[in-house]
Amino acid sequence: xxxxxxxxxxxxxxxxxxxxxxxxxxxxxxxxxxxxxxxxxxxxxxxxxxxxxxxxxxxxxxxxxxxxxxxxxxxxxxxxxxxxxxxxxxxxxxxxxxxxxxxxxxxxxxxxxxxxxxxxxxxxxxxxxxxxxxxxxxxxxxxxxxxxxxxxxxxxxxxxxxxxxxxxxxxxxxxxxxxxxxxxxxxxxxxxxxxxxxxxxxxxxxxxxxxxxxxxxxxxxxxxxxxxxxxxxxxxxxxxxxxxxxxxxxxxxxxxxxxxxxxxxxxxxxxxxxxxxxxxxxxxxxxxxxxxxxxxxxxxxxxxxxxxxxxxxxxxxxxxxxxxxxxxxxxxxxxxxxxxxxxxxxxxxxxxxxxxxxxxxxxxxxxxxxxxxxxxxxxxxxxxxxxxxxxxxxxxxxxxxxxxxxxxxxxxxxxxxxxxxxxxxxxxxxxxxxxxxxxxxxxxxxxxxxxxxxxxxxxxxxxxxxxxxxxxxxxxxxxxxxxxxxxxxxxxxxxxxxxxxxxxxxxxxxxxxxxxxxxxxxxxxxxxxxxxxxxxxxxxxxxxxxxxxxxxxxxxxxxxxxxxxxxxxxxxxxxxxxxxxxxxxxxxxxxxxxxxxxxxxxxxxxxxxxxxxxxxxxxxxxxxxxxxxxxxxxxxxxxxxxxxxxxxxxxxxxxxxxxxxxxxxxxxxxxxxxxxxxxxxxxxxxxxxxxxxxxxxxxxxxxxxxxxxxxxxxxxxxxxxxxxxxxxxxxxxxxxxxxxxxxxxxxxxxxxxxxxxxxxxxxxxxxxxxxxxxxxxxxxxxxxxxxxxxxxxxxxxxxxxxxxxxxxxxxxxxxxxxxxxxxxxxxxxxxxxxxxxxxxxxxxxxxxxxxxxxxxxxxxxxxxxxxxxxxxxxxxxxxxxxxxxxxxxxxxxxxxxxxxxxxxxxxxxxxxxxxx
Length: 916
Hints:
Layout: H1 2-49, H2 66-81, E1 87-94, E2 97-103, H3 107-112, E3 121-122, E4 140-146, E5 149-159, E6 165-173, H4 175-204, H5 206-240, E7 245-250, E8 255-258, H6 260-266, H7 270-273, H8 278-281, H9 285-295, E9 300-307, E10 314-325, E11 331-340, H10 342-359, E12 364-369, E13 374-377, H11 379-385, H12 389-392, H13 407-418, E14 423-430, E15 436-447, E16 453-462, H14 464-478, H15 488-505, E17 509-516, H16 519-526, H17 528-543, E18 551-556, E19 559-564, H18 569-584, E20 587-590, E21 593-596, E22 599-606, H19 613-629, E23 635-637, H20 643-664, E24 667-676, E25 683-692, E26 698-699, H21 701-710, H22 714-731, E27 739-746, H23 754-766, E28 774-779, H24 780-785, H25 787-798, E29 803-809, H26 815-819, E30 826-829, H27 831-834, H28 841-856, E31 860-863, H29 869-878, E32 882-883, E33 892-893
Parallel strand pairs: 22-23, 25-27, 27-28, 28-29, 29-30, 30-31, 31-32
Antiparallel strand pairs: 1-2, 1-6, 2-3, 4-5, 5-6, 7-8, 7-11, 9-10, 10-11, 12-13, 12-16, 14-15, 15-16, 17-19, 17-22, 18-19, 20-21, 24-25, 24-32, 24-33, 25-26
Helix pairs in contact: 1-4, 4-5, 16-17, 19-20, 20-21, 22-23
């Protein structure tokens, strides 16, 4: 029995030794497989970390900057810190020599500043077997002992997108392999020794302790078995919960085991996948090629779009097939690793699009670090500033500072950015060539996952042209386009400011209003171009007499406004007098014409008693036109008690009332008959106007028409009368068979109004009122003052069939001289001659002369202010054709025409003879 026990013990010892050998071999194989897989993964990661197209045709030493080389070294080193791999690197073979193109370094080397730059660094003691990879696709595993150390290394040939061959490699220290093997061997030998030590007392006291030893051995075996089962469970759990899909396949490419993530990736279940023959059922040729590579002993790789066969799930797949070998080194299957990189790929594509968008952006993009040092500029930066990226990267954006931007803006910028907020503003920057440009910028802080500011990004738009256009628009909005002076609106803003200053600080200023006398003569004689040139010359002459702080404006027409800040009335009067003295020596030359130029000026004081800017403008306007009424070419100073200025203020009030009446349609049409004296024919009527005041009273035109002509409102009244008269005639055309015509008065200002002329022509051409029933009356004074415009106006409407009467004829000094130049149909003899025709032989002679001259020229005559039957009879004897006056009829509302078939003369008193 004892002999058998010892034989058993010897057998057991032999078995332990064999087990140790076998376990060591298996552990070595497992560790090498694990190490090789890690080396393969690390080596393949290196090209992914490097920039796109890093390896390319024609790459040479020095074609990347040291900063970029260092950046690659740092990125590769950061990766190795998280792995057992000590080095990852890439190489190229050139002329039978091996050169590093990138490499990681250890933390010790990093701190010591060693091997920081590896681009085209010669690998002087490279293993000769590396040259086999020049024309091979096979992965190479070597154990290398060089001046860097003793390593287990892998070398994998790769080809870049443009066909450049390079090698990606990874090293792991042999100690990483030997250490666990030694530990395992020591552990197993220790266990064996322990078991053998157990045998010693057994052999000495086998008979007494045999059963205890057997039980102890059983417990040890059981515990070891439990440990192995626990280890298997841990491994299975790791595989099952791995973030990547893992599966095992046999030598026939039939899947035998899968984890949960693999099911999710392909979109199927283990019932379908386990037993799936990949060689027979996979359809993607590139994926099949990777699988076949693994079955032939090489690591097969696949990357790209993929649709799973079983789940029909679309994805961007990164797959590896790693071969497994048996004890004889034969491939007996493999492990597959599938990673769904769809999200990462989308992110990569998005980043590429963003990168392209930034590169091709029409706006400047600048990225700086937290200290403001430039790290990136896009091509638009170069287009605008003239600086190339290599000139500014590493510099501060202050190189664009022109000195034109206030320092407060930069202080606000940094305060805003460092608080984590976006800043917007405008800089006046300087280009490389020294030119200045306006830039609108939006600068935002960039933060990391911890909310810490790491960079700033600035978006810059060149708004120089926009600014220039804006400035031009602002200038055009506030200035007169002809002279470049301030316009009325901007001048009123300045005046409002000065009035406010006078109220607050009791300061004293002078406001001046200048009007060019007889400016219309230049316009009518030489045209508007000449008038414009005169205005420019006068504005320059006035500007030369003013101080820098004084304000000059052209509100319109032939008028100028001057605001003398902090000046006395005497100073203001002296300035205007100097202007007038210069104008005495000035002659305006235009072609063959030579004109003297004179001005009328009004002055008003601006002080704490000035009510408002509008009030001051009214005062100085009144003063200026008081000067014109007093004979022109003089200065008038505003005074609240001046009688002439009170009249002018009344004009201003009437102007406001006229505007109200036009807006409220508060005018009324009246008519007065014009009867024939020499033959039987229908009666004509002159259309008159009345204004209904807010009180309800009717106001005769003599009260408000002077104000209308003074403030150029007369054309608006004329248009109202024409529009409403023609509208009334159109509505009542069937009841107007008993009248000859209606005569409408026109002001001199309307004779040059092309828009009004066009309106009359269109209305008559498209209306139902015959042109022969429409007559227009213009005064002799207005016609002579606007002779050219009057001729065009009269001829245009006479061509339609309208007739014209020259009103108040005889009141001018040169009436007969101008008569042959005016193609009118009737002369209306001025009432100042008609009124006293019975008592004054001179007046009778004037009436006779006008009547005879008119008849000679083929015109009919009308006598106005016929206030008695005796006067009317005398006119009939003199041969005057028509009569109009109170002895015939007073003015009546226009609707009375509809009820009057004939007009009978009525008696009139002396009091009735006032102007209609």
